[in-house]
Amino acid sequence: MNPTFLQTPIDYLKGVGPNRADMLRTELGIHTFQDLIHLFPHRYIDRTRYYKVSELQQTNAEVQIIGKITHLKMVEGKGRRLVATFKDDTGQMELVWFRGHKWIKESIKLNVPYVIFGKTNYYSGKYSMPHPEMEPLAEHEKSLRSAMQPVYPSTEKLTNKGITNKVINGLMQTLFLEAKNHLFESLSKPIISELKLMPKNEAIFNIHFPQSQAKLSRAQYRLKFEELFYIQLQLARKNMAHKSKIKGYPFEKVGPIFTDFYNNHLPFELTGAQKRVLKEIRADLGSNAQMNRLLQGDVGSGKTIVALLSMLIALDNGFQACLMAPTAILAVQHYNGLLELCKNLNTSISLLQGSTKTSERKIIHENLENGSLSILIGTHALLEDKVKFKNLGLAIIDEQHRFGVKQRSKLWHKNEYPPHVLVMTATPIPRTLAMTVYGDLDVSVIDELPPGRKSIKTVHRYDANRLKVFAFIRDEIKKGRQVYIVYPLIQESEAMDYKDLMDGYESISREFPKPNYQISIVHGQMKPADKDYEMERFVKGETQIMVATTVIEVGVNVPNASVMIIESAERFGLSQLHQLRGRVGRGAEQSYCILMTSFKLSSDSKTRLETMTRTNDGFEIAEVDLKLRGPGDIMGTQQSGVLNLKIADIIRDNDILKIARNEAWKVLKDDPTLLKEENRIIKFVYTQLMKFKNIWSFIS
Ligand code: ADP
Ligand code: MG
Question: What class of enzyme is it (predicted)?
């Protein structure tokens, strides 16, 4: 290894002058030899195949054809161009040049076989190829070329300045010859031999100059693995550090409160998934480390009972517990639900929210501090400074996406040691991503719905069919059901959305007039008290229709509501649509979700609608969402570095990711501080990684 050589500024590479060096720096962030050698091709062109003109299809990307030029002519006027007639034994097409006419005319030989290569266009029955790459067949056969030609990331500026893919290829060739003796192995021997990975220098060689498809695949595998391995190693280290540093109160026993409830008052048999998750939580609570666990479960999967059972364990061990919800509506619902579940237990539960009266608050504060209050349910109000627990042992946070990390840590600092933390979310984070993003958080998944649920029927209807939809609503209401009608609210255009909502409300009121029908309306611009009042009327069944914006998205539970109508459904994201749909299907009746849209739909919208009508599985939906949006929009991806991947793809390379994660954990479990000789390389690379933050900026 000679790091100084690889640190050489790119200006010093043969073929790179000051101008090119500047371009490489500003356009591709390439400063050194090492940066260039880690510029990985994003695809390869297969030059093993030769097409016939008659085989061309409009869907072809780039093709290679053997044939002869029989004619050359200039077409004058706007878009002045040189056009060649190109023939093989199956047909003919055109080659077109908009620039460099003089040179082409002088160098092209008519009626001599050429190999041409490029993208084809199809226009009124004819194929043409603009600015083909071409070479006389005789020369083509002589030159030794790699069948798989790498295509490097590029920018318009680079191409315009003549730094084409061919030029980068040339530079890579020059560089590799000089650098190959300076590349060092960056994974340990045991890992390389166990996974039969290609050695580093061979992988680098084959990624730039693939010797065969098989070698290219192995090179890609090796480099992807390496990239993911070091990210996973980082996350695993964080997780282990957390566990060894942050002590928690061990809840050693499961005592009388839990046992009594479990044996005598559990209203239903737990699902297998609920049991498994509870076991995972118990194991965490019983250890000396602070629990930091994310509980994922689709809407209706039964997270609440898991939360309650976990809280009872805290109580059994002499600690208090709290449950925090993102909205007052939800907090109240949790409070009522838990009161009902605990009615036969001798535990005290209180509710604290913004609107709690001062006198009531005082009592809650007192009872919290003297320990006579065991369970506190509430909103953000729980985070106020005056709220002091005697000994908070477990904090549960519902619907994590509404809370920032800061708010969470505020709960932690209530008492001497941080309480165990369980974060519950119904926003399924694809397993793929959870593994990477939350590598330092433990994740439990409830992936099974309670038995006997009728799956929600979802359909897509155009606005033009509104009358039929209204008729359907009338029928459902006649059967005693209730209906949600939701309008999009997108922050940037709040005024307009608000108008949509009010217009909708008016037309619904006309269609469903009093006194036969009663309608609630809830939106973000209402005072909380008014919102609660309207919500309450719907919950009690006093109104049959709830017209709302997405404020009802989170957690509201009205089992009698059987229809969810989503207006302008094309404007909602997939996860939001799924959340909204989860508001129905909570009772024994068949439920429906109707997605209303205009006729004009983008292809992404179509995919979203198709996905919604096809499946109810939140994880499947989340995977589609991830594919549509990329990981960028999903919480936590920024910090985790998954967006800076150079060669691996978090979605497509999920299998490699799993292996990388296993290996990272295996290494650390066996040798937590990487002191063993066999892990010397890993330690070195890892240390550099922590220094430079970009794994490829030093692995060489
Ligand atoms: P979520 O995960 O969305 O918070 P809840 O905890 O509110 O779901 O549960 C949804 C509904 O399913 C509740 O009415 C709850 O009583 C019921 N439920 C939960 N677990 C089971 C089970 N194992 N068997 C039957 N019903 C269950
Ligand atoms: Mg819930």
Answer: isomerase
Domain map (residue ranges) of the chain:
3-45+153-182, 48-143, 256-446, 457-616
Residues 128 and 75: beta-carbon distance below 8 Å: no
In angstroms, what is the span from residue 321 Cα to ligand 1's centroid?
20
**Distance from C-alpha of 696 to C-alpha of 688, rounded to nearest angstrom:** 10
225: part of which helix (H) or strand (E)? helix 213-245
Interatomic CA distance for residues 471 and 357, integer angstroms: 45
Backbone angles phi, psi at 117, to 5 degrees: -145, 135
Q: Report in angstroms the alpha-carbon separations of 31 from 24, 26, 76, 488.
A: 7, 9, 45, 47
Angle at 280 between CA 626 and CA 310, to 5 degrees: 105
Question: What's the gap in Å between 299 CA and the centre of ligand 1?
Answer: 9
pLDDT band at 334 (very low <50, low <70, confident <90, very high): very high
Instruction: Answer yes or no: pTM beyond 0.70.
Output: no
Q: What spacing in Å lies between the alpha carbon of 304 and ligand 1's midpoint?
A: 7
Side-chain-facing half-sphere of 56: CA atoms under 13 Å = 29
Q: Which of 276, 299, 301 to mutate to test the pocket of ligand 1 (most atoms within 8 A of CB)?
A: 301
Query: Could you tell me the distance, in angstroms and rounded to a whole number, from the CA of residue 674 to the centre of ligand 1?
Result: 45
Contacts of 304 (CB under 8 A, 6+ apart): 334, 337, 338
Closest CA to 82 of 66, 70, 67, 94: 94
Note the maximum CA span of the chain. Answer: 99
Residue minimizing CA distance to atom 21 of ligand 1: 450
Q: Can you tell me the mean pLDDT for 46-64?
A: 86
CATH class of 256-446: alpha beta
Kindly state if the Cβ of 310 falls inside 6 Å of ligand 1.
no
**pLDDT tens-digit series, residues 234-250:** 888 887 877 777 788 89
How remote is the CA of residue 371 from the centroid of ligand 2, in Å? Answer: 27
Query: Rounded distance, CA 164 to CA 27, Å?
Result: 13
CA 300, 303, 307 angle in degrees (round to 5)?
155
Q: How high is the pLDDT of residue 700?
A: 36
- The domain made up of 48-143 has a fold known as OB fold (Dihydrolipoamide Acetyltransferase, E2P) (2.40.50)
- The answer to whether the CB of 585 falls within 8 A of the CB of 453 is yes
The number of beta carbons lying within 10 Å of the beta carbon of residue 340 is: 9
Local confidence band at 699 (pLDDT 50, 70, 90 cut-offs): very low
457-616 adopts what CATH topology? Rossmann fold (3.40.50)
Residue 303 in contact with ligand 1 by CB distance below 6 A? yes
Is the fold of 256-446 the same as that of 457-616?
yes
Question: Could you tell me the distance, in angstroms and rounded to a whole number, from the CA of residue 686 to the centre of ligand 2?
Answer: 40
- Of the residues 305, 310, 552, 616, which should be mutated to test ligand 1's pocket, given the most ligand atoms within 8 Å of the CB? 305
Cis peptide before 256 (omega within 30 of 0): no
> Do the Cβ atoms of 166 and 682 come closer than 8 Å?
no
Please provide the average confidence, as pLDDT, over all residues in the chain: 87
For residue 559, the ligand 1 atom closest to its alpha carbon is 14
In the structure encoding, which two tokens stand for residue 67, read together?
């044939």
Task: Quote the tokens at residue 393.
Answer: 């042992």
Distance, in Å, from the CA atom of 113 to the CA atom of 131, rounded to the nearest integer, reads: 17
